[in-house]
Amino acid sequence: MDRPIVAGVDGSPASLTAAEHAAYLAVTRARRLRLVHGFLTDLDHGLPDNPYHGRPLEPDEASQRILATVADTLRRRWPQLAVQIHQAPRGGAGALVDASRDAELVVVGNRGDLPAAERLLGSIDAQIASHAASPVLVVRPPGWPVDHPGPVVVGVDGSPAGQIALTHAVDEAARRSRTLVVAHSWAARAAREARETYPGIEATAMAKAGELVADAVAAAHARWPGVVVEERLIRGEDAARALLAASQDASLLVVGAPRAALAGTLTETLAGRLAGTLAGTLLGSVSQRVLHHAPCPVLIAR
C-alpha cells in the first residue's frame, strides 16, 4: 500500500525543516509527500457562525501560497518527488493526527522553547506523537540537515515495543548508510543497594543487560547484515539522561513504547527491571524530556 510521508507546514522555520526532512525520506522510501496545514474556522476562534448558511469552509489563501511555495521548492531539489498539498479545517495537531491514519510516517518540527499554554497542555509535537496512528518524526532543532553524518541511536529494553523501535532504527540506518548504536541503561546503584537482600542481583542484572544488548545486535544484523552496529551499555538511574547522552552526536534517536513486565523468579524479575530502565512509558516523563531536549531528531516508533 502506497502510504505517503506526511509533513505539517505552517510557514515557521521548524515546519519548513520538517518538510525538507519529509521530502528526503519520501525520496529514499519511494513514497509520495503530503504537505498538510490545519486552518481554523470562525467558530474555532469563538466567533458566531450560522450552521445553516451552507457556506463551505474556505482554506486560508496565504497558507495555500505557503504550501505551494514549499512544494515547488522541494520539487526543484528532488525532481522525482511527488508532492500533494492539503488544507484541513482543523487545528494543526488534529489535522496531522487525521492524516496519520493512512500515512507511513508523520514529520513535524519542534519549535524549541514552549509558550506557557503549551507547557501546561503539552506541546503540539507531543500531542501528535501521543495520538498519531503512524510513527512520528520530530525534527529538532530547526535547520537540522537531512544528511547529518552521525549514527542512528536506538534505546532498547527487551520489550515488544523496544523491538519495534529497533526495527525502525536499523531500517533507517540502512537507508541512510549510517552506523546503528544500540543503547541500553541499567540501574547500577539500585542493584548495589539491593544486593544485601538479594545476593548476586548486581551480577545478574549486569548479565541480563549484556544479553539484552547482544540479542538486539543479533536481531539488527539478521535484518540488515551490512549495517555496522555498536553496543552502548550505560550504568545509570536516569533513563532520559542516558538516551540524551547517547545521542549527542547522532543523526537520529529512535524510542519505543512501554516495556512489558518480565516473568521469572523474584531475583530475576528485579534484575530484569534494573537492567531495563532505558525506555519508559511512551510520552511519559522520559519521552517528554527526550522530545524537548534531544540534540537531534527523534523518531517515536509505533
Give the gist of this structure.
This protein is α/β, with parallel strands linked by helices and 302 residues long.
List keywords for this structure.
11 helices; elongated; 2 domains; alpha/beta; ten-stranded mixed β-sheet; 17% strand; 302 residues; Rossmann fold
What sort of overall outline do the alpha carbons produce when their principal axes are compared?
A: elongated
Average pLDDT rating = 79
Count of distinct strands: 10
Question: Low-confidence parts lasting 5 or more residues at pLDDT below 50?
Answer: 44-49, 52-56, 114-122, 258-271, 277-283
State the CATH superfamily name of the largest domain: HUPs
Main sheet: strand order:
3-2-1-4-5-10-9-6-7-8
How much of the residues is beta strand, in percent?
15-25%
* CATH-derived topology of the largest domain: Rossmann fold
Structural class: alpha/beta
Oligomeric category = single chain
Largest sheet: 10 strands, mixed
Helix content: 40-55%
Distance between the termini: 18 Å
SSE blueprint and pairings:
Blueprint: E1 5-8, H1 13-29, E2 33-38, H2 61-77, E3 83-88, H3 92-99, E4 105-109, H4 116-121, H5 124-131, E5 136-139, E6 152-155, H6 160-176, E7 180-186, H7 188-194, H8 201-223, E8 229-235, H9 239-246, E9 252-255, H10 266-274, H11 285-293, E10 298-300
Parallel strand pairs: 1-2, 1-4, 2-3, 4-5, 6-7, 6-9, 7-8, 9-10
Antiparallel strand pairs: 5-10
Helix pairs in contact: 3-5, 6-8, 7-8, 8-10, 9-11
